[in-house]
Amino acid sequence: MHETGSRGTSSEPDRLLRALGDDDSLVSGLRVDEETRRALFSAMVRLRSFDDECVALQRAGTLPSFFSSRLQEAVICGAAQALADGDAVFPTPREYGVSLQRGVPAEELAAQILGKAGGRPEERSSKGRQAPCYVSFRAAKIASVSGIIGAHLPHAVGYAWACRVRKTSHVVLAFLGDGATSAGEFHNALNFGGVMKAPVLFLCRNNGVAISTPVARQTASETLAEKAHAYGIPGLLVDGTDAIAVYNAVRTWVDAARRGGGAMLIEARTDLLPDRDPIARLERHLMKDNLLSENAASAIDAAARAEALAAVNAAKGRPAPGRETLFDDVFAVVPRHLVSQRDHA
């Protein structure tokens, strides 16, 4: 991939890696198959459409809150595309859309976001009892989302370490926002990931602002990627508006991790080029390479919007979880006084 820019503060400067040049062509020497590039585009459009429907629900007051993934699709979909089915994902609320790429039906995802019951047991890990976007799907190897920023990162390391101890080929992808790099759990996780050589990738979406705190107020480091060096793991800076670059970076790490490589930190910058919509960039590239026509792009968009609307409408019609399920999954043996309350719910 193409490298641009440097810190100038190290003998091994972090460089911004890109797969798409200024003219939307693949950089010289990079080869990514046509099927993967088309799949990335379809996944991103599908996520954008679903996200738009959920944002509309939040604006209408149907959802109390919602973590939009708009303009973050290249990071989310690019990374998910590089994984195999058996690999685990530890997301934040913004990566709820990974489940769509991992085979979770759109209606089931909508149901969990809306707090609805139903669906096949293997598809409803959160059983409609979580906050919007705090969904998990055990069958899809998507872990439960933590309400505490960064708290999931040590858990991801533990899971990855278990994969290594058990001598499996599975790897773990842990998403985080730039704000999580200011949490103690981030440093604990990177330290243990490095020491244990755990096959875990820390993928940081850096849009420049964590809720309302600019990155410059959080750290004096020129990049977040360089924080990896203190823990003996590699750090990489990637253009987060370039889905192919994200995919290629994650795929390269995955291949190495399956052969015994350890942890890594990737910083995906989405704040550098705010005028570059990641979907529009990839669409222009595909059209330039004659891999997509305007009619085909319109058809993909229409199908994605129809799917999202149908999923949300179907999920709205589902019942809420029964009150008698309030104590499920809390105790191995439900105490008698709670059994009484449950039976009289």
CATH superfamily: Thiamin diphosphate (ThDP)-binding fold, Pyr/PP domains
Mean pLDDT: 91
The largest sheet has its strands arranged as 1-2-8-9-5-4-3
Please summarize the sheet with the most strands.
7 strands, mixed
Summarize the helix and strand pattern as letters: EEHHEHHHEHEEEEHEHHH
Question: Helices, strands, pairings?
Answer:
Layout: E1 2-4, E2 16-18, H1 34-59, H2 73-81, E3 88-90, H3 98-101, H4 106-113, H5 152-165, E4 172-177, H6 184-195, E5 200-206, E6 209-210, E7 213-214, E8 235-239, H7 243-258, E9 264-269, H8 278-288, H9 294-316, H10 336-343
Parallel strand pairs: 2-8, 3-4, 4-5, 5-9, 8-9
Antiparallel strand pairs: 1-2, 6-7
